[in-house]
């Protein structure tokens, strides 16, 4: 292990974690977790993308009412965020809503939830910029993942008690105001106890996952040896233990350099690669890929190991496997993010020793050339047939990133140029609508430009 180099990276990134603050409730924890990421983003040297639980969103959930300081008509079916002023316009018979006058000073993105509907409002302006939209999508994915992680987790919730009940139990046991760390200790010893049943162990992991989103909590898990237990559990004989262990690990690793270092030393990378390379249920692959992404992001040493261990071939096989189409976008996004990470570091002007060391580490990484060798030029555009704007956006930007080396491969793909033409006319329409609404730097305009760039370069 190159410990000197690892410690340096740790130092670099730990600076950004100083602003991390504790908060009382679930929602705030999620938001403050994002604050950490925002601080990282401000550093021009870092990639703009962070590791998140990339879960599929129900398009219906995206129908958001964007409130402003003026009354606006609420369309039928549109969910209204809590806390708005709502009135019935007697002339038109339509409902209207606006931000209450006292709240106009507030700024930023605000997550809301009402029954099964949820969304994001931007208190600064009527609509989102592409960057804000992305951020909002991520926040919502984070929220929706924790709240409606497929039917499977619904079943889990029925079987196992939710956190609030767990807390109530602890309180009833007269352990007033137990800290997160104490709860984590209990969950770890429950998981590690020889008397624990399979259900007990899965429940302990399920509860642990909730706590380790917080940077300090994940580091506490590490300091008491719990992280090592979780990594060991990645090759447990019981698949449900493996899957939940990967989920805990992914959440603990997200944006947490200390935990990343510990995990790679404990062999997490090899174990995750085995889960990705072998025949496993989709749910297991999904969690393994999540942990894998969290381990690699912003960690050049782990990326180097990933390449050495043949990880790119494994991702290539996974990308082309039948029945796991839902994972393709995540795989491509991870690769894009890693290529961008290097590019951004190299483009940053900074003479400091730390930056020079970072550059040196990224210089050794040859992900993009390996991707070209391993046929990613023809694999990536396959995803462009998606009907989701978010997917297309990511495919287009990845294609753009690779185009100088992939031009002839793109040209040889049957139907790609007519598909690009179709996307262009679709986004011309959507961008024009956007512009009519006063949006000068809109999301669809970005997509249109992206498609146009590729079309031009393929001529
Ligand atoms: C787990 O249990 C084993 C055996 O009882 C013990 O040696 C080990 O320290 C425990 N690990 C943790 C992290 O509690
Ligand atoms: C898990 O992997 C370790 C080493 O990586 C090995 O010693 C152990 O036997 C494996 N456990 C199972 C259940 O396969």
Automatic annotation (TrEMBL):
Top-level taxon of origin: Eukaryota
Every Nucleotide exchange factor Fes1 domain range: 145-221
Keyword Protein transport attributed: yes
Principal location: endoplasmic reticulum
Keywords: Endoplasmic reticulum, Glycoprotein, Protein transport, Signal, Translocation, Transport
Signal peptide annotation: 1-23
A Pfam family this chain is assigned to: Fes1
GO molecular function terms attached to this record: adenyl-nucleotide exchange factor activity
Cell compartment(s), UniProt: Endoplasmic reticulum lumen
Gene Ontology CC entries for this record: endoplasmic reticulum lumen
Family label: Belongs to the SIL1 family.
Role: Required for protein translocation and folding in the endoplasmic reticulum (ER). Functions as a nucleotide exchange factor for the ER lumenal chaperone HSPA5.
Record-given protein name: Nucleotide exchange factor SIL1
Taxonomic path: Eukaryota, Metazoa, Chordata, Craniata, Vertebrata
């Amino acid at each position: 292990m190159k410990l000197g180099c690892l410690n340096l990276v740790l130092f670099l990134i730990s600076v950004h974690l100083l602003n991390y603050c504790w908060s009382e409730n679930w929602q705030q924890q999620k938001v403050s977790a994002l604050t950490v990421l925002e601080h990282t983003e401000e550093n021009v040297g870092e990639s703009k993308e962070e590791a998140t639980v990339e879960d599929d969103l129900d398009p219906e959930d995206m129908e958001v009412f964007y409130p402003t300081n003026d009354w606006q008509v609420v369309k039928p079916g549109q969910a209204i965020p809590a806390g708005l002023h709502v009135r019935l316009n007697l002339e038109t018979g339509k409902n209207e809503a606006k931000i209450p006058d006292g709240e106009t000073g507030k700024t930023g993105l605000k997550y809301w939830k009402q029954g099964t509907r949820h969304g994001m409002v931007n208190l600064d302006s009527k609509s989102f910029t592409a960057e804000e939209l992305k951020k909002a999508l991520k926040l919502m994915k984070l929220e929706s993942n924790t709240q409606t992680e497929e039917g499977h987790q619904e079943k889990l919730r029925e079987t196992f008690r939710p956190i609030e009940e767990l807390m109530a139990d602890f309180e009833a046991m007269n352990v007033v105001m137990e800290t997160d760390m104490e709860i984590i200790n209990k969950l770890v010893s429950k998981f590690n106890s020889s008397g624990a049943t399979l259900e007990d162990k899965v429940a302990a992991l399920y509860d642990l996952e909730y706590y380790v989103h917080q940077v300090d909590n994940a580091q506490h898990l590490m300091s008491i040896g719990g992280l090592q237990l979780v990594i060991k559990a990645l090759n447990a004989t019981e698949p449900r233990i493996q899957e939940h262990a990967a989920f805990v690990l992914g959440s603990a690793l997200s944006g947490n350099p200390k935990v990343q270092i510990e995990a790679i030393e404990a062999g997490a990378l090899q174990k995750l690669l085995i889960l990705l390379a072998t025949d496993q249920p989709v749910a297991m692959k999904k969690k393994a890929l999540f942990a894998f992404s969290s381990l690699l992001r912003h960690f050049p040493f782990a990326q180097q190991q990933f390449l050495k261990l043949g990880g790119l071939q494994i991702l290539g096989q996974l990308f082309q496997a039948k029945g796991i189409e839902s994972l393709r976008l995540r795989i491509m996004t991870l690769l894009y993010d890693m290529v961008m990470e290097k590019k951004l570091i190299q483009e940053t002007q900074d003479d400091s020793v730390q930056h020079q060391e970072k550059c040196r580490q990224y210089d050794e990484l040859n992900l993009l050339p390996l991707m070209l060798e391993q046929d990613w030029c023809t694999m990536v555009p396959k995803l462009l047939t998606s009907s989701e704007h978010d997917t297309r956006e990511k495919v287009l930007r990845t294609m753009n990133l690779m185009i100088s080396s992939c031009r002839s491969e793109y040209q040889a793909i049957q139907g790609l140029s007519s598909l690009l033409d179709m996307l262009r006319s679709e986004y011309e329409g959507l961008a024009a609508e956007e512009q009519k609404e006063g949006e000068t730097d809109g999301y669809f305009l970005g997509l249109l430009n992206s498609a146009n760039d590729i079309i031009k370069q393929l001529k």
